[in-house]
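Re: Re: token formats

Sure, here are both.
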Amino acid sequence: MRVSLVSALALLTALVAVPAGAADFKTKEAGDWLARGRVAAVVPMDGGNVLNRGSGTDTGLDVSNITNTIIPELDFTYFWTKTIATELILATTPHTVKATGNVDVGDVWLLPPTLTVQYHPLPDSQISPYVGAGVNYTIFYGEGGGLAGFDVRNSFGLALQAGVDYQLSGPWSLNLDVKKLFLRPEAVTGSLRVKDVKIDPWIIGVGVGYRF
């Protein structure tokens, strides 16, 4: 995770360091739609207690690893005013869950549609940062492998966001975006229950946007 965060911060610094040129860029306006395509690194945290499903006693196992992934991401933003917008993020990502001792718990796909409300303090600037907060509903599907009967329950979570757009000519822009999702679903197998799986992923994306 440290490498991904350092890379994202380095790119953000590079974007901010680029002087605003004479390009005829389109400023952010009320009523605008902004579509972005990003390549994103999904970096989950690792945690969660593995209990016996019937008795609820602790097995001594913990969730020790949830794999990182690189995915395409698509989002759509609508500007209610020059500075206030809402964004819907769409992506899906596969992960493998392992417990203490490299025990393969199972594989699962996440579909985490996330809606955030954003504040854009510099809508007329060529370098236009924003912050946001919102809600996430994660759908887990495609469970398999690992322990028999592996299943993860869908869950709600909060989301925080920060990013910056660098306006290019016309409606085009470059984008760096960092999100933190707070996901604590419950998972079960035939005989085990994994309580409060600590996924809480960082999603660090770079991409291109187009406003219309």
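Second one below.
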Amino acid sequence: MNKKKELLAYCGLYCGDCAGYSGEIADAAQNLREITQRYKFDQTAKNLFPKELKDYDKFREMINFMTQLKCPKTCRSINGNEVKCEISKCCREKGFYACHECSTFEICDKLKNMSALHGDSCVKNLKSIKKMGIDSWIREGKRFWFADDE
């Protein structure tokens, strides 16, 4: 199977556009963690900027958390009995490659659950995929990710 095609999630999002898949945020957080440790920045925060950086320990906890923001697998590579995503389960049960093959994807409650972060990006992508075909959409289509994408 085409590697790029494997990066199409069932919901119509493209994993190749995700910071979790690319690991950019996790890598940047790891780099920042290493730099702040090397320069003992906790001491700088405490002694030079106690007022401005009074919550430095919380910041460090967030950076430590952010170093873990990497997807170990795409939804397609997750074993069937490990699947937690309702969209993935639904597509697999129906034998669909992605939701664009379903006649009701535009009104699907499972896709609506994605709207807090992604707005109508999934539906926009799925409509384009249905019209263009997966390979053409991956090569040439406009891919949406966030609620405020135009």
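The chain has a mean pLDDT of 93. The two ends are 30 Å apart (CA to CA).
- S.
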